[in-house]
Amino acid sequence: MDLTLDSEQEALLAVTADWCRDNMPLDQARDRPAALWTELEAMGWTAMTTPALGLSHATEALVFAELGRHLAPVGLIATAVAARWSDHSGKTALALLDPYPEAGRLRIYDPDGAGNALGLVGHMVAMAVLPADLGGVAMLDPSAPLAHLEPVPPFEPLGDPRSALHLQLLAAAFALGCADAARDMAADYARVREQFDRPIGWFQALKHICSDTAVRCAVARSQLLYAGCALDADDADAAFHVAAARQLADQAAIENARANIQVHGGIGMTDEAYPHLCLKRAHLLSFVAPARREVILGEAA
């Protein structure tokens, strides 16, 4: 299994990074322009997973990690899975079922302009039709508009069990991107913030914190790429590798986001600064197709 990026993958990642930097800066995450989704469609990010394009899962994961680094709309995850495993075209919202079935409530993230919602029902990916007038509002994560739907509409399973692994893989990629963003933000701040006439990054305690964020990202990225390759090769252990990538990416995203707030000190605790955006996105992603304990431990049937 070759984990080295080829020239086409490197070029695709470079284009993605340049476009995201110019069109989805992190400081606009809580107030993205209304035309952003149209621009994402024009660039092809919403349809890049369609079978006709023939992109590998590993390539998709790398691109989605770059999109996740800029806190791209979470609807991209659901839209990408729907594009590969269903006949539905157009924007698909991300659905999270209430953990308490008796509540009968469905959480829909990024619902604006979406005709369908996609999420896990049990261990299978399923889709449901959304009302035409459903709109979302900013909640805890201001970069991910949320709407509630009661009662829960009927969901239709996609059928192919690989769709659940695909959903996990792309959620892990978004989480890795979130970890990357927190790492970069912490390191950049440690270079410019001064105490005792020195950048705070000069002090050993801060060096260790920033180094740990880089290590977590490197470990999660390696596992993510391996999981994508295993899924492409239809490896018998693909479910384990995807679950491991999901676990490591979630851990990296949450711990790096916390470390980023710590490096920023007092300003890191305020709403006007940006570190909290990574932490809120990291926590949201941890609920999207989380790794199953029995798969990681090799106990799944």
Automatic annotation (TrEMBL):
Residues 169-281 form the Acyl-CoA dehydrogenase/oxidase C-terminal domain. GO terms for molecular function: acyl-CoA dehydrogenase activity; flavin adenine dinucleotide binding. Residues 7-79 form the Acyl-CoA dehydrogenase/oxidase N-terminal domain. It comes from the Bacteria. Keywords: FAD, Flavoprotein, Oxidoreductase. Its cofactor is FAD. Pfam families: Acyl-CoA_dh_1 (PF00441), Acyl-CoA_dh_N (PF02771). Belongs to the acyl-CoA dehydrogenase family. This is Acyl-CoA dehydrogenase-like protein. It comes from Novosphingobium kunmingense.
